[in-house]
Write a structure and sequence with these properties.
It is a single chain. This protein is of the alpha/beta class. It folds into two domains: about 90 residues, 2-Layer Sandwich (Alpha-Beta Plaits), CATH 3.30.70.340; about 325 residues, Aminopeptidase, CATH 3.40.630.10. The chain has 13 helices and 14 strands. Strands 7-8-10-9-11-14-12-13 form an eight-stranded mixed sheet, sandwiched between helices. Helix 6 crosses helix 13. About 5% of the residues have low confidence.
Length: about 425
């Protein structure tokens, strides 16, 4: 069906096609809109995804088994409307001007930056995160330890921090900001680090001191810097392609675990979910693999932080025809997370299930790789706030509420893991 005429009226006068450069050299998304598009058939999905390969005019923000969220340039609106009518799907506007959200986010960041301190009323840059990590390591030399995964394509160091209060703890690995534009993930990861070190709450102390935490606040360092300096909506890595002018690979499709199987990633270098020319083509993912492989005997739980959609996704991602042997346990652990989060005053609801079953095939992702190749039996992708009102541009005021939910959810998740016997030591710490 055609797009609702009221929504058409809201989509503004077309001034220019494609993003434009602002005075500071950053890409602007003035009058770019985001639509939720409901579809029913695989053919409809394929046509809509084909649109998203034109990155100048369309960007895929989110995909579920019956819905896509598409960002559309003002100059491509007529093409979009034509495709909506031709494919007989419905589309509803939920963000009318992406740049307005970006400007509001930036304004909030500037206000929070005036006192010059690191905190969680704003989104921090990579340089700010790394400077803060250095301060943490100096302040807590006995219980913290720096580790380095390796170097990015552009030569940046990929850093992590281990927090360990005592020996013989089960290990929890947190991977964050593998997708560059998902800023809430590194904000949540750094907030958790701070809580584990500074909170005097008995609940937090128990969580912090009875697990070893391996936390990588920003894995996709090149892409993350690019989102701060050039393009807020960038997702992928920054390594050029040998077969295309399009840059970057989706790092969460680049692990060597059922890579490119069952339409679980795109072979088109311009697609947002491009799996790369081969598994581990991205130095960031190779570095992550090498490091985790070296300590896999110490890891009981792998959590990959993402946004958005409020989901807890377990293996498998490459197929919905099969489920892991411990799938019932994975669902029980995920339910514990979801129930704990929903019990908070915010009332935030998380759905859970396997990636392929409740979303779509996604092969070569962290959670499947950790589960299939590294023997980490509890492995999830956590998709944080929200469900589309702000999408990737979650206002800074929501950082702490989201992080509080993460803390309570992860605590419940680990309690359930303990109950089910998944936190037994795999090797001597």
């Amino acid at each position: 069906m055609a797009i609702n005429s009221v929504l058409v009226a809201l989509t503004f006068v077309v001034l220019a096609q494609g993003a434009s450069l602002g005075q500071d050299g950053r890409l602007r998304y003035d009058n770019f809109s985001v639509y939720k598009v409901k579809f029913e058939t695989a053919e409809q999905r394929s046509i809509l995804r084909k649109l998203a390969e034109d990155r100048e005019n369309f960007r895929l923000w989110h995909e579920a088994k019956d819905e896509l969220h598409l960002m559309i340039s003002p100059g491509a609106f007529n093409e979009f409307d034509t495709e909506i009518q031709r494919t007989n799907v419905s589309a509803n506007l939920f963000i009318s001007n992406v740049q307005e959200l970006i400007d509001s986010e930036e304004e909030g960041n500037l206000k929070a930056s005036r006192d010059g301190t690191f905190g969680w009323k704003k989104y921090n840059s990579l340089a700010e995160i790394y400077a803060w990590l250095d301060e943490i390591l100096v302040a807590y030399p006995v219980i913290t330890e720096s580790f380095i995964l390796g170097q990015s394509y552009e030569g940046r160091t990929i850093r992590g921090i281990k927090i360990s209060y005592k020996s013989n703890n089960p290990g929890v690995f947190i991977e964050s900001n593998i997708h560059a534009r998902e800023w809430i993930t590194s904000a949540t990861a750094t907030w958790l680090i701070n809580e584990f070190l500074t909170s005097e709450d008995d609940f937090v102390r128990n969580l912090a001191e009875n697990h070893d935490w391996y936390i990588v606040p920003v894995l996709n360092v090149d892409g993350f810097v690019y989102t701060h300096e050039k393009d807020r909506m960038w997702r992928k890595t920054r390594q050029p392609s040998e077969i295309s002018t399009c840059i970057g690979v989706d790092p969460n499709r680049n692990y060597d675990s059922h890579w490119m199987e069952n339409d679980g990633a795109s072979s088109n270098p311009c697609a947002e979910d491009y799996g790369g020319p081969n598994p581990f083509s991205e130095p960031e993912i190779q570095a992550m693999s090498d490091y985790v492989s070296s300590i896999k005997g110490k890891i009981n739980v792998m959590l990959a932080f993402h946004s958005y959609s409020q989901l807890l996704l377990s293996p498998y991602g490459h197929t919905k025809e099969e489920f892991p042997p411990n799938f019932d346990d994975l669902l029980a652990v995920a339910k514990a997370f979801g129930d704990a989060v929903e019990s908070l005053p915010y009332g935030t609801v998380y759905r859970y299930g396997s990636s392929a079953d409740i979303l779509y095939p996604a092969s070569g992702a962290t959670n499947d790789w950790a589960y299939n190749e590294q023997g980490v039996e509890i492995s999830y992708t956590i998709e944080y706030r929200d469900t589309g009102r702000y999408g990737f541009i979650l206002p800074p005021v929501q950082i702490i509420p989201n992080a509080e939910e993460a803390l309570v959810g992860i605590a419940a998740l680990l309690d359930k893991c303990e109950e089910l016997g998944y936190l037994r030591l795999k090797t001597t710490q």
